From TrEMBL:
Keywords: Membrane, Transmembrane, Transmembrane helix
Keyword Magnesium: no
Region annotation (Disordered) ranges: 1-67
Identification of the protein by name: DUF4190 domain-containing protein
Biased composition (Low complexity): 11-67
Ranges that cross the membrane: 85-108, 120-149
A Pfam family reported for this protein in Swiss-Prot or TrEMBL: DUF4190
Keyword Transmembrane helix in record: yes
């Protein structure tokens, strides 16, 4: 918002540009006709009759409603919800890592296409899911190594 100062007044107190504005004469008590949908012009810094003066620096209240709101004009865009598969991906990351990875990739594709929320949840499900798969594979490899080492070094004792 910018505050525009009023035009400088002339020494004579009239129009500073030396011209007098032409105003059509109106019968007493009638307001001048305005084009349809326009607000009547108020002199700079003056309040319409019947409204209290506003403190300096605060905007005056609007006397007229937005014309589009009366007939269902533009409505604000409602925020999309969180993608369901993103939530499922995060939950599955702690139970079935492979399911978390699969649903996480599907969720990211849907989020990119539809603009839904939940990208962070899908990424978290993917990361935890991949980490779970990696730890599971390392665990299986360690078990196999221990099994082979135990079988090869085990001596059969006959009693």
């Amino acid at each position: 918002m910018s505050d525009i100062p009023p035009p400088p007044s002339s020494p004579a107190g009239g129009n500073p540009y030396g011209q007098q504005p032409q105003q059509p004469q109106q019968p007493y008590g009638q307001q001048p006709q305005q084009p349809y949908g326009q607000q009547p012009q108020q002199p700079y810094g003056q309040q319409p009759y019947g409204q209290p003066a506003q403190p300096y620096g605060q905007p005056a209240p609007q006397a007229y409603a937005n014309p589009g709101s009366q007939y269902g004009g533009y409505q604000p865009v409602q925020a999309q919800g969180t993608n369901t598969l993103a939530i499922i991906s995060l939950v599955l990351a702690f139970v079935v890592s492979l399911g978390a990875v699969i649903t996480g990739h599907i969720a990211l594709g849907q989020i990119k296409r539809t603009g839904e929320g939940g990208r962070g949840l899908a990424l978290a499900g993917l990361i935890i899911g991949y980490a779970g798969i990696a730890f599971g594979l390392i665990y299986i490899v360690i078990l196999i190594i221990i099994g082979i080492a135990g079988a090869s070094s085990a001596a059969y004792y006959d009693y």
